[in-house]
Amino acid sequence: RESLAQDLQLGRIAGLDRAVVNAVQQCATFGIGSLTSALVTNLQQLPLHHPSTSSLQESPERLNDLNQRLRSRLDVVLQPQGWESVLKKNGVEVSRKRIRGLYEGGEKFYCVKAEGVVAAPPSVLFEILRDSKRVDEYNAECAGTVDLARAGAESKLMWACSKTYFPFKPRDFVTRVHASQQPDGSYLIMSESPEEYVPAPQPGTFIRTKVLLSGSIMRPVQGDPSRTHFTTVGHINPGGAADTPLGAQLANKICIHGPVSFVRRLELAAQKSPSAQAAAR
Question: pTM for the whole thing?
Answer without folding.
Answer: 0.77
